[in-house]
Design goal:
mainly alpha; Four Helix Bundle (Hemerythrin (Met), subunit A); 9 helices; globular
């Protein structure tokens, strides 16, 4: 990022300088070191989440980031749109920390997410104050990009579109319920939502609702179903069986995230080999 470029996160200085500083640092790395960019954004999201907890739900302070985000969403303190962005930053940040190759478009997409979330975050910590940041301006990259770099960028953008679509179809935020959750009410809500989606799908000529969403609803009902007298399981057995079903779904999400990281890594390595091959032939 050039020295005269104003950070997209400068507007946050008056609300939370620490978070603003992390956003500015992430911008500086987005082109030169996208893994470091994602690491900074991941820290940024964690700092936001913990500040929200301090203000609105101190009882959650000892939880890890994923549990905090899910709990904030569950209790109505974190809207779905912001939750999706924060989870995406958390997941991609974790992958970068563990050495996953990261294309620049991945980091740029998460930087946009962070900018959008930041305005909402500032309004939350200032009790409803309207925050109107400037439109996001992508940090300028290298002055010139060769054909290989452009091809790489286009392929990575297409991959990110696919990943975001798949993530939205299997939102992990639907999975978490705490011990004191009103499970019957939540199950009824999810079933109603599923029925609504079913009607929309049929109207669009698609008779089937996403199977993974159905699995989520079934997992939420599992403990109730297993306690039914005809199944003969006591509460402890039912809970263990429900947790087993839940873990299977959770494992599926984690496997999918690992596959996304591998897709990105393969894309980066492929274009690196292509460039090296052309250089040798030249």
């Amino acid at each position: 990022m050039s020295e005269d470029h104003q950070s997209n996160f400068d507007f946050m200085d008056r609300y939370d300088h620490r978070v603003s500083h992390l956003g500015g640092q992430a911008e500086q790395y987005v082109h030169s070191d996208p893994e470091s960019c994602l690491f900074k954004l991941r820290l940024m999201v964690e700092m936001m989440a913990r500040r929200l907890v301090e203000l609105q739900a101190p009882r959650l302070a000892d939880l890890d980031l994923i549990a905090i985000l899910r709990s904030l969403e569950q209790y109505g303190m974190l809207p779905k749109k912001q939750a999706d962005g924060m989870h995406a930053i958390r997941r991609d940040g974790n992958a970068a920390v563990h050495g996953s190759e990261t294309p620049v478009p991945t980091a740029m997409r998460r930087l946009r997410d962070a900018h959008r979330i930041s305005a909402w975050y500032c309004s939350m910590i200032q009790r409803g104050v309207k925050v109107r940041p400037s439109q996001f301006v992508p940090p300028p990259g290298p002055a010139q990009a060769d054909a290989d770099a452009l091809k790489m960028h286009q392929a990575a953008e297409a991959l990110e579109d696919q990943i975001d679509t798949r993530r939205r179809a299997t939102r992990e935020g639907l999975l978490l319920f705490t011990e004191d959750e009103d499970l019957p009410t939540e199950v009824q809500r999810l079933v109603s939502e599923l029925e609504g989606l079913d009607r929309v799908a049929q109207a669009a000529g698609e008779p089937l609702v996403d199977a993974e969403f159905v699995a989520v609803v079934m997992a939420m009902e599992m403990e109730q179903l297993l306690e039914h007298p005809t199944l003969g399981l006591d509460t402890r057995e039912a809970k263990r069986e429900a947790e087993k079903q839940y873990q299977q779904i959770k494992d599926g999400f984690e496997l999918r995230e690992a596959m996304y990281a591998e897709e990105r890594r393969a894309l980066v390595l492929y274009h690196q080999r292509e460039r090296q091959s052309r250089h040798k032939q030249g």
